[in-house]
From TrEMBL:
Protein's name according to its UniProt entry: Homoserine O-acetyltransferase
Similarity annotation: Belongs to the AB hydrolase superfamily. MetX family.
Catalytically driven reaction(s): L-homoserine + acetyl-CoA = O-acetyl-L-homoserine + CoA
Active site positions, chain numbering: S153 (nucleophile), D318, H351
Molecular function as annotated in GO: homoserine O-acetyltransferase activity
Length: 373
């Protein structure tokens, strides 16, 4: 029985579902593990459920303390008492995506056929596969329909895929700093990260479980990706060309500049909580994502059956998924006759703006969700 404390601060759970889950690649995955957190209580009529979809390096610990880092959840600015997504009003679910490493089936979990970690024998996955796994979880939880699906970046891709794959289950969709498909530049940055991991001698073709993981390669991959999450203005304001404080400075390969030290810290802390093979699989799923291609090459076709309300938000300094990507989604929604609202917000923080303090974003999401009640 859940206590009032559980309902307020969330429950970290893991469930094994019998499956099978049929993947886009044709593989039947069974059984299926899903790590997830819930906050609040499902209403008697089931009408208050909100699914929050996380980004590439996120996980299900959206508003509860992270069990590895001990830090608060990654979206406590948006979820909590008196906030736009409030467990007092909403039943909030956040699931670790398929292929990740915080409780859901992925390369680091045990292959029941071999009793060893899957490693690189884990089947290739797509964003739509992640969404199908979430749908199986919601079936398990007794959630037939969602008041809203909300997500940023890769989470926004899942939101779009939810609206296209399960239009009858989604009443509202909030897509933040996202895109309907990756550009060549997006794919190129991911390939640099993947090659960094696979060039690490500790990777061993993905068979490193029980041994030293490829932490150095994963750290470099994280550093390269993290640059794309920021903006030039934000980096300049935060670091400029400031040097590290030292008694003496000599030329070399130490972190002389503050921005170098920051990126190295990001890489090292990331490798402490994430699995390198999972990074390979999830970045590939991102690169494969092309919602228009899934629907005859016409993006509007993805939304023909949807009756949901859509809220699309972009940020003016996001060069990973720039505003033109959001406008393309809005144009497709308009062509499909869907109800869509769009706003570009100003922020110095680049792509990561949806994760950071933004009163404007809170007002947009709060107003949008309340408008449907």
């Amino acid at each position: 029985m859940e206590s009032a404390l559980d309902q307020r601060f969330g429950l970290n759970r893991r469930v094994t579902l019998p499956g099978p889950l049929k993947l886009d690649g044709g593989v039947l995955l069974s059984p299926l593990d899903i790590g997830y957190e819930t906050y609040g209580t499902l209403a008697a009529d089931g009408g208050n459920a909100i699914l929050v979809c996380h980004a590439l390096t996120g996980d299900q610990h959206v508003a509860g303390d992270h069990p590895v880092t001990g830090k608060p959840g990654w979206w406590t600015r948006m979820i909590g008492p008196g906030k736009p997504i409030d467990p007092a009003r909403h039943f909030v679910i956040c699931a670790n995506v398929l292929g990740s490493c915080m409780g859901s089936s992925g390369p680091a979990t045990i292959n029941p056929a071999t009793d060893k970690p899957w490693g690189m024998s884990f089947p290739v996955i797509t964003i739509r596969d992640m969404v199908r796994a979430q749908a199986m979880l919601l079936d398990h939880l007794g959630v037939a329909r969602l008041q809203a699906v909300v997500g940023g970046s890769m989470g926004g891709m899942q939101v779009l895929s939810w609206a296209a794959t399960y239009p009858e289950r989604v009443e509202a969709a909030v897509v933040l700093a996202s895109t309907a498909r990756h550009s060549a530049q997006n794919i190129a940055f991911h390939e640099v990260g993947r090659q960094a991991i696979m060039a690490d001698p500790a990777w061993r073709g993905g068979e490193y479980y029980g041994a030293t993981p490829p932490a150095a390669g994963l750290a470099v991959a994280r550093m390269a990706a993290h640059i794309t999450y920021l903006s030039e203005a934000g980096l300049t304001e935060k670091f400029g060309r400031r040097l590290q404080a030292r008694e003496a400075k000599s030329f070399g390969f130490d972190a002389d500049f503050q921005v170098e030290s920051y990126l190295r810290h990001q890489g090292l802390t990331f490798s402490d909580r994430f699995d390198a093979n999972a990074y390979l699989y999830i970045t590939r799923a991102l690169d494969y994502f092309d919602l228009a291609e899934e629907h005859g090459g016409v993006l509007a076709n993805a939304f023909r059956d949807s009756k949901a309300r859509f809220c699309i938000v972009s940020f003016d300094t996001d060069w990973l998924y720039p505003t033109r990507d959001s406008r393309a989604i809005v144009h497709a929604l308009n062509a499909a006759g869907a109800r869509a609202s769009f706003v570009e917000l100003s922020s110095p923080f680049g792509h990561d703006a949806f994760l950071l303090e933004s009163p404007e974003l809170n007002r947009v999401i709060d107003g949008f969700l309340r408008a449907g009640q």
